[in-house]
Fold:
Amino acid sequence: MSTRNRHHHKGNAQPANPWNRGNNAGSTDGQQQPKVKNVKTPANNGGPSSSLKKSEEKFAQAHQKNLEAAKKYAAQQSYESSEDEDERGGSDGPTQDILGSVLKNYGGGGGDIGKTQEYLQNLLESRSAVCLICIGTVKRADSIWSCKSCYTFFHLLCIQRWANDSISQKRISHEQQEGYYNSRGEYIPKPALSVHWDCPKCRKEYEPVDIPRHYECFCGKELNPANHLWLIPHSCGETCRKRLVPDCGHNCVLLCHPGPCPPCPQTVVVSCKCGQSNAKTIRCSQRSWTCLKTCKLKRNCGIHECGGVCHAASECPPCTSRSKQKCACGSRTKEVNCSESRWSCGKVCGKKYVCGLHSCEKVCHEGDCGECPLGLPRTCPCGKTSSVASCSEDIGTCGDTCQKYLECEQHRCSERCHLGKCGQCLELVRKACRCGSLSKEVACHKVLNCDLKCKNVRSCGKHPCNRKCCDGQCPPCDKVCGKTLPCGKHKCNSLCHHGPCYPCNQKATVKCRCTGTTQEVPCGREKKIGAPKCRLPCRIHSKCHHTNPHHCHQGDCPPCQKICDLPNDTTNCAHPCAAKCHDAVRVVTKDKNFKPVGPWDVPMEIVEIKQLPHPQCQVPVPVTCIGGHETAQWPCYNSKPASCGRECGRALKCGVHTCPLQCHAFKKRDTTEEDPRCQSCTAGCLIPRPAGCSHPCKRPCHPPPCNPCQAPTKVACHCGLTQIFYKCHEFYSTDKTEQELVAFREGILSCGQKCIKNFPCGHRCNSTCHSGDCPNPEACTKKVKITCECRHRRLEVACSAARTNPRSLECDESCKSVKAAKEQVLTERERAQKEQEEAENQRELEEYERKVGGRKKHRERKRVQVEETKESYWMVMVAVPVGVLVLAVIVYFTLLR
Structure:
């Protein structure tokens, strides 16, 4: 159990966790102390070394035991972490998919859904769900219960035991309670039993019927939800559908989720609070909105307009305009708020009723006083009989028993009906005195006190009570304290009390430094409050060359805040010193010769008033660099020309480059040409060559143009069979136009031989060596053979005509005769094959009958069948060669023609 969880568990004091009492026994402040058992130490000889050695051994054993416990706890936590990751199927992979599926049906947006997503992500990824009862991690497959107020998770078995034990302890505690008598002798019965159990975290009260009995999902639709890898743990995966809070008529559209439902994301069309603006579409959770118009409604006075920013009609504040108004009876007038125009002066009306005998006893009121109340139907003093009489007549008693409750509110008056109040209760009842030591029967209206003096010490903690028949509530001490107050001048005049005395209530006078201003302060607080603020000028002379006017003060004078304005002798320039006055500056130094005795010794600080030298002049002065590149404002004390750090930039003799040296001095300032101190150009020619030329210019750095490139170059012709030699400046010339250069290159790279490329049709190109695709591929004149549909006729035509219409040759009569001969041969071949199969089947059948011993067939029938079979067989053997011969002759003559 971690220290954080232990502290949290300690905060839930009632009801206590009964099954964790044994583990927390002997602990202090929620931390379990290590127990050391069987510690063998040498015998104590009474010396300090033996006691110190024993303490060190105990500390070493406790330290070793704590280290072992920490290692064991760390190993257990790592094992549980790996086990949880295995159960989740990864650390961060499925979590984002889970949250995406949860929030896919949510139509709202903004910060509310962001908070809900953050709550879910922290809950799933940080493993922050911990059962506060057993201080264990709530895993995916555990049965849980979630509080409806704080939405904290608990194991189902843990919360069931918690609720049952809480109810049992309250019942046991109620049975042990008893009634008691108070200081007035009244019997106070024990309070009624309130059986409920609380959430261990937020202390929300639940009834016994609310003890969870089943494991449900968060929305309560499914019992014992399955542990699905792609759903939130303990969720059914269906839409929540809970009524949103506050109830707006819509349901939650998130998937079954832990924690509270987010605000309603639906949109509604409503007007502003005052109703003056047009309706607009907003979120249902923000159903009311405020425009910037002022309210035009009348306030409660009915005269003035509200004038406030848009709000509901019932939220108009009371009218604050003031006017003189009369009271309700009209006898007084005063200035009041307009909303309080009806006010009462508190005066009794005193006007005579219509009867002229009695006066109105109502407090300041409006309207008529009404009829005389004595003229209305009245009852006798006890209220049992009623009669109607004029207000001048008195209603007498009825003669019956009064029977009104006396002041004790327990007994009734036994006298006859009478005027005025009833007397005191004379019933004898048994009462106990205040201290409870005496009990006897006395009259009900009397208070029973004994003569026993109280020996308890009063609240001051010094004097006894000595009060007779004290009920335990001893009065405060009535003696004078007399202690010297913290001011040290006066004594305490209060009654004897416990604890420190009140501060002194006397006054003392304090004065300023010049004694021109005085002030009265509480006695004893003169040093703490200090001298009063004095507005008179200080009388101490200034220590610098300025006049330093300031008010009277305590301590040293404030430093001068004026500018020095004396000649600056530090830099010996013409500028006056612009620093703050430094004629008299407070300087704190430490004694260099101080030798401390120990680490507690601190060197003494020496405070001196000194005149400091003038600081260096900071006035900006224009300074030009030694190379003449720029002029900048530099401080006066450092106004010597120097290098600016840029490149020199002077043009060199080559006319192409500039001096690369850092800003330096030079002789001629009126020119920008190369100076003797500049670095000469040593670079080669850097002029870019024509596009395609890869040969560098061999001349040193010079202005353009370069000499034509004479390098010989060879390249293959367009067809790749011949190497063409040319000069580089001719092939990549810059004097010709682009069209002329293209035509020139085309003429040079053509070898004049026949092109070796093929047309798309497969025949060789007829043109000479050229670049790009071969020209006119559709005009190929090569001869190709085409055939008719049956491939009997053949004809040679040009390639272009064959590609245009490859099936232009039609079949003739010879093609048809050849086709018919082929069909006849095929028919004869099929018929002969069929007869051969029938003969083979007949032979196999006869062979089978012969083996199984069947009946013999008639010889004549058998002979006829055999003869027919042989005859058909010879006919086939003769017809097939004849047909093949005829077909060959027909094909031969067709081909010749």
Residues 1-48, 78-93, 107-112, 856-869 have pLDDT under 50 and may be disordered. The domain at 125-173+191-281 is CATH 3.30.40.10 (Herpes Virus-1). Residues 218 and 839 are 86 Å apart (CA to CA). The two ends are 112 Å apart (CA to CA).
